[in-house]
Amino acid sequence: MTNFGPLHPGAAAGEGKLARTSLSIAQQIEVYRLLKLNRLVEDRLTNLYRQGKVVGGLYGSRGQEGISIGTAFALGPDDVVAPLIRNLGAMLVRGVSPREVFTQYMARGGSPTGGKDCNLHFGDLARGLVSPISMLGALVPVMAGVALAAKLQKKSYVAMTYIGDGGTSTGEFHEGMNLAAVLEVPLIVIAEHNGYAYSTPTSRQMKIKDLAQRASAYGIPARIVDGNDVLAVYEATRAMIEAARAGGGPQMLEVKTFRMKGHAEHDDAGYVPKELFEQWKAKDPIDRFERHLLAGGLATREELDSITAKVQAELDIEVDNALASPMPPPERALEGVYFEGGDA
Amino acid sequence: MTNFGPLHPGAAAGEGKLARTSLSIAQQIEVYRLLKLNRLVEDRLTNLYRQGKVVGGLYGSRGQEGISIGTAFALGPDDVVAPLIRNLGAMLVRGVSPREVFTQYMARGGSPTGGKDCNLHFGDLARGLVSPISMLGALVPVMAGVALAAKLQKKSYVAMTYIGDGGTSTGEFHEGMNLAAVLEVPLIVIAEHNGYAYSTPTSRQMKIKDLAQRASAYGIPARIVDGNDVLAVYEATRAMIEAARAGGGPQMLEVKTFRMKGHAEHDDAGYVPKELFEQWKAKDPIDRFERHLLAGGLATREELDSITAKVQAELDIEVDNALASPMPPPERALEGVYFEGGDA
Amino acid sequence: MSEITFLDAIRQAILDEMRADPTVYLIGEDIGTYGGAFRLTAGLLEEFGRDRVIDTPISEAGFVGAAIGSAMMGMRPVVEFQFIDFIANAFNMIVNFAGTNHYRWGQKVPIVMRGPSGGRVSGSAFHSLNPEAYFNRAPGLKIVYPGTVEDAYGLMRSAIRDENPVLFFEHKYLYRRIKGTISADAAPIPLGKARIARPGTQLSVITYAAMLHVALEAAEKLAEEGIEIEVLDLRTLKPLDEEAVLATARKTGRVIVLTEEPTTGSFAGEVAARIGEKAFWNLDAPVARVCCIDTPVPYSPPLEDFYLPNADKLIARIRELLEA
Amino acid sequence: MSEITFLDAIRQAILDEMRADPTVYLIGEDIGTYGGAFRLTAGLLEEFGRDRVIDTPISEAGFVGAAIGSAMMGMRPVVEFQFIDFIANAFNMIVNFAGTNHYRWGQKVPIVMRGPSGGRVSGSAFHSLNPEAYFNRAPGLKIVYPGTVEDAYGLMRSAIRDENPVLFFEHKYLYRRIKGTISADAAPIPLGKARIARPGTQLSVITYAAMLHVALEAAEKLAEEGIEIEVLDLRTLKPLDEEAVLATARKTGRVIVLTEEPTTGSFAGEVAARIGEKAFWNLDAPVARVCCIDTPVPYSPPLEDFYLPNADKLIARIRELLEA
Ligand SMILES: Cc1ncc(C[n+]2csc(CCOP(=O)(O)OP(=O)(O)O)c2C)c(N)n1
Ligand SMILES: Cc1ncc(C[n+]2csc(CCOP(=O)(O)OP(=O)(O)O)c2C)c(N)n1
Ligand SMILES: [Mg+2]
Ligand SMILES: [Mg+2]
What we know:
The complex is a heterotetramer, with 2 copies of chain A (344 residues) and 2 copies of chain C (324 residues). Chain A has 344 residues and is of the alpha/beta class. Chain A has 12 helices and 7 strands. Chain A has helices at residues 10-13, 25-50, 65-73, 88-93, 98-105, 139-152, 171-183, 212-215, 230-248, 274-281, 285-295, 301-324; strands at 80-82, 159-164, 187-193, 196-197, 200-201, 222-226, 251-256. A 5-stranded parallel β-sheet of chain A has the order 1-2-3-7-6, sandwiched between helices. In chain A, strands 4-5 form a two-stranded antiparallel ribbon. In chain A, a hairpin with a 2-residue loop joins β4 and β5. Residues 1-13 of chain A have low confidence and may be disordered. Chain C starts with a strand and ends with a helix. In chain C, the strands form 3 sheets. Chain C has a 7-stranded mixed β-sheet with strand order 3-2-4-5-7-6-12, sandwiched between helices. Chain C has a 5-stranded mixed β-sheet with strand order 9-11-10-13-14, with helices on both faces. In chain C, strands 1-8 form a two-stranded antiparallel ribbon. The model of chain C has no long low-confidence stretch (mean pLDDT 98). In chain C, β2, α2 (44-48) and β3 (53-55) form a beta-alpha-beta unit. With 324 residues, chain C is α/β, with parallel strands linked by helices. Chain C has helices spanning 6-20, 44-48, 60-72, 91-105, 132-136, 149-161, 210-223, 242-252, 267-278, 301-307, 311-323, and strands at residues 4-5, 24-28, 53-55, 76-80, 112-117, 142-144, 166-171, 179-180, 195-198, 203-207, 229-233, 236-238, 255-262, 288-292. The chains are: A alpha/beta (344), C alpha/beta (324). Chains in contact: A-B, A-C, A-D, B-C, B-D, C-D. The interface between A and D is large, with 39 and 38 residues. One magnesium ion is lined by residues 164-166, 194, 196-197 of chain B.
């Protein structure tokens, strides 16, 4: 039932040549832009955080951008995805603008939630985005339900969500995975194995080496890929989405990666052996993809630099816009507990 | 890590010769007495239920007695076990008297809970018995905690509990199993695969064939045995208890069996194909054990009959005693919400 | 029109909504093949098939979560808890996910969560729960708790049509003990509206569900002595029909809130607190709570009788307040 | 003696109990290596080792259950929820297992469940919870919610020594904002006893935790006008110190219950209902609740400020009641 392979060669190492891809050059260039956008938006947020402009905590995905981008890039327009707090990239792929992100993190009135909720806690079904709650694991049953709706409505969209190594220990993950398997719904679960749950190494969260082993308890097909190879992630996700769309039921993809910062900006990750950071720095997904593009002659240095420059220019504007935007009116706190409208 | 075998030959079939055993003849005779006691107590309860003497529902274990008896018989005096509602046999092995069971089911004042709780919902740590709550799955983390205490206290007792096929789909089962694995505590979980969760066949509860596959998600060693072979159950449990006691961490034993009645006395099990009942009747654990004793010349027909007669005589008395015993005084309802005593 | 039971009325309401709206579906344990532990969904699998009557594994958080996800995509799930006590296992999903979703990001979650609740059936601590107070504090939820056959029918239809997460509690003691008739053209009954079950002038008993019948029984008896008790049936507990609550309090000046739950932390406390704050100047006596004792639900009949309110206990308290 | 923070006081109490009693151990997420999200358990792993400071996987029901099991076997676990909001995932274990165990079969479960609670830190809906009302209804539990450094220390020591399941909430806004001194011979403070934080004659504000400081601030301001407010700090919410509650109500005849939670279904409602029933004849004005609005906790500061009670809102209500 469960099939852990074929393991992409890079899976263990997370280095070397990237996977073969079906993406056109133009698409790969777009992937590059998204990767850069993901990282640079987070760099801006880090600056804003240090300037005390971010309200509350700041959570980043440095080193894991290839996962958010590669997985979401494989989705179709009608598919629905529920990103976690480290999946900014998935939101960017679905068309979330930097302004939305900056205003959310700065609690502005013009943010997607109007200041009601924080950071990446927002969604928009028009763009196929579901918002998380903080309780880890909860999105798995909920997205199984999104997938169930597709099945009941006889529509072809699939549901996708993410779970960290830590999150796979929650009861809701278990109930959601098992239910999705029994109901045979088109759910794709991306399990990000990044070595830590806050300060807790995977070894203290579970006695198994691969998150994919969790899937065997449900009879859900699982595969493992190098999470720092955006192309491998994309191809594996695409295959799973196709399988799910074709009626193959839920699929689980384990991506091996590493969290290159602390749990959040306030956490200096002193508990992480320095060597690990060095080892994984060499596997940076963006650097590797850049090398792939240049080595393959898919893009020139100049082209890539101009992409980055464009992104930076956009972010200059969006940061200023966000900073200039007002806080919400206090009375808004009263609005929206119930849906008051008529049948909608 | 997970090791599903060696599968006892009888495991699939649940028929034929019983497993070799390390039990003495005297012990095997005692096992026989307990098996009979288990079944006959339940027969008496069924009669009492039909006479309207049982307060609330009645849950039986017909066809599964070999599991409760075989597993609990392998426990040491200091070990702690948490039976579920179908594990009357385990309680009898731990010294629970028929009178305790009858008074519980009839809500009498002299019952172990004094009328506060129902059926087999009672415990007594002096006899190494923990009471369940109705919510399935809850006992797994709790018994993991009992096992954790043994580890922290550097004592050699182990903890054992049961879970049905249905119960393995609960989040609490998952959290408890994973935590037990990570903390490497001496917990033995007996997974009773009896084909149904109430009216729901295993096929609609999970997409896996063996409950043992659940264990692979935790890196917990698992084995499968024929649950209708009391000796196989005993030997497998004993081995797992030894492994756990020796520091081998949690163990899971899947026992293949079949629920020979409805979910409870009120349920006629109309949803169960008649053939299944016939097939499994031939595998009745008590009949098989009886054949084993007689064929092996371990006991004579007369000896076995006199054991049964003794049990019946005891039950005649205990049923009458229970029927004659009073209901609790109403004001008792106020007592015991908190432990009021001093440091105990 | 023939008489039907409280249980039949709920089934009928679900049936009528399923026939009227293809997005309505049922999900829960043993609701299909078996028709539910109380046979409330009997026959529905046969009419609507497995896509609309879904038997699930034992995973309350799992299927409540799935119901939430499907509701966001345009479905109208009706979730059954085999016994409402098991709602505890879905607490996070209900309170944190369903309850806050619309407030946090504007996405509605039309879902009904229903199941057999309440005691007086020797169900002991885990098959007798009245969960209203556990959920009343959670913003974004609605709570419905009918006490008559007509309300069970009309309120269930409204609950299914509501755009918000609705907890619909069904007192199992009433399932087959009360009967009524539902006219072919019976309309949905709006959520959020209490009902004067019996008009009176001297004292108001505010209650709902099974206790409604205890209140009516007491009022009946006292009427023989010429004591006129008003009985207000809340029907919807959240949002509370404060207007109706304050109106009856102001009218009689004496109020007892009668509920089947431990007194401490009870839903009755919320009702009493509102009256005490907003109708204070109209009160001629303290607002009293007649609830259960502060213990888990005990099993043995003498203990459970002691635990539960009944007409005699209520009458005794009424007399005290009338003398006040 | 040097001043220590509210957070330090809790750590000190745990440390003192761990040194005094080898059966006391800690279990939760990131409490060992990391010392806890708020560093409350920093240094304890180093002193007591991994057997007594246990880092767990993310499984609240799992480790609460394990704590319960170990407590039955003679251990005294102190469970940390990284944020108290995650207690929702252990609701069944706490309410149904820990809460009912002693009543059902006589087996005590001495366990403390603690964690950072409360808002005013822009934590939004899932990092700002005040869960007291969700658990007040559950028989068998105790609930402690300190508001001063001294109480945090003394009540935590008593909570760990208590033979029953105790929920110990720590308002994170106070963690590093208030200071105090703990004498070397500081004794445990008994659970179940409220404390008059400020004596007064004209109106009583009954409160606890962070709101205690809002009440004292308001009382301070009003004192300048010669208005004497009594402030009662409940400290233990369950079992409630009814005697102290009724005493202050009878003394001043005017009461406001001030809590940081939505008004509907609030713990404040329980307190108000008891006063309204048992001190009615001593009241000169309605018992008022000053709580939050009935919404999830909003994130943006202007919204959260609107959501939360504060001294000005309290003073406004006090004036209304004094004019009554
Ligand atoms: C049910 C629950 N318990 C605790 C937390 C607190 N918490 C937030 S993130 C986190 C670690 C998550 O680790 P992992 O799932 O591996 O995701 P990662 O941060 O590595 O991306 C924890 C414990 C939570 N959000 N939900
Ligand atoms: C959390 C929870 N949900 C629902 C139930 C209701 N219930 C009681 S027994 C049962 C079926 C259990 O099946 P299984 O675990 O296979 O045990 P078996 O009855 O076959 O021994 C169900 C659904 C419950 N007890 N707990
Ligand atoms: Mg991780
Ligand atoms: Mg079963």
